[in-house]
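Blinded run. Sample ID left blank on purpose so nobody reads anything into the name before looking at the predicted structure. Input follows.
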Amino acid sequence: MAQEKISSTTTLFDKLIPFLLIGLFGFILIGAAVYMQHPIMIFVGIIILAVAILLGAIYSNVYHQIAETDEFADTTAKFPISNNVMQFLPYIIFIMFIGILAAVIWSRKTGGSVGL
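Blinded prediction complete.
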């Protein structure tokens, strides 16, 4: 009975993955708004993007190789949302970066000139 409860609880974590991604996006968005005070920081952000996409691709490939093994086939079938997230992780990182960059640039834009 305890084993069934643990199994059902761990499968519920799969449904939390989208909420974790949205929370992560919001947290990074707030951090980027504070961090990117100067336009030169966009180049630092591009370097961070390249590293994040590289790490995302590595994690995605390693997860894919582990998920294809026979030992983990049953477990990966129980977590379809996590599998999709890990399959498209580099693209998700890129889309999040574009959204954050657009929000930061849009928030810094002034609407016209201010006179004395």
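Unblinding after everyone has recorded impressions. DSSP finds five helices and no strands in the chain.
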